[in-house]
Amino acid sequence: MENQGNNTSLKAVIAVLAVLLAGSLVYIFKMSSEVDAVHTEIVKTGTEKESVMKDLQDLKATYDAAIAENTSMSEELLQERDKVVNLIEELKKSNGDLSKYRSQVKSMQGHMKELMQENEGLKKQNVTLASQRDSTVVVLGESKKFNEVLVGQNEELSKTVEKGGKLSVLNLQTAAYKLKSSGKEIATDKASRANVLKISFTIAENSIAKSGDKNYYVQVIDSKNNVLGEAKKVSFGEKELAYSFISSVKYENKTVQVSQDLAGKDFAKGMYAVNVFDKDQLVSSTSFSLK
Fold first, then answer.
1. What is the pTM of this model?
2. Which of 288, 252, 256 is nearest to 169 (CA)?
3. Residue 134 lies in a domain
4. CA gap 92, 172 in Å, rounded
5. In angstroms, how far is the first alpha carbon of the chain from the final one?
6. What is the 8-class DSSP label of residue 267?
7. Is the predicted pLDDT of residue 105 greater than 90, yes or no?
């Protein structure tokens, strides 16, 4: 009977232990499942965070490249790039729900596409404007060259006209005479006999010259370097001219013969110089001598 009671007690203990073991196994299985679920969630959250971070890094790289092109939108692109950088820093510190970050990234990606399209449009406009500007520069350059050529041609033409409009004084001649009381003139080359010098020259025909009264200053210088005749002086700016007499001529674009006498006495022997000036410009000269 005692053995039968011991067996009954042993069976009861074994049954209790079996129940405890089963409960432990169930608890261990439940805990293991929960750990696996938490691990899976952590891995999933880490993967999603990396994905969101990669999207943000791609956004930042796109903005950096667009900013480097230095377009008129650079300021706006900088502001958007800074928003991305701030979100990246915020995401690094976050361990919570990623849904708000995914939502912000999606919104940023959409805005980025709009900005990039606008930026590309501006770049194309800039290329067109640059091409038009280059064409304008070329046209302006050609026009400038053409104008420079015209100015040069006009200056040359003005010089030609001015030069062509000047009168030519030709055939300047001087001869000494002995003028008798009867009015008869006898040519001489002796200083002691001469009492008048006859000076003549020709003004050539010029159809483009300005017609009207012309004054020529005639200068006769003897062998002692004296200016004969009136020996007056006239100034042209800083220049001063001593002259023997003035020949006034009415010029009408036709050839004009000019002749004028210079009376005198006690002419010196030697070489004489005769110069004709149009204002301060020497237009003709000759020389003669008296014995």
1. 0.47
2. 256
3. no
4. 108
5. 196
6. P
7. no
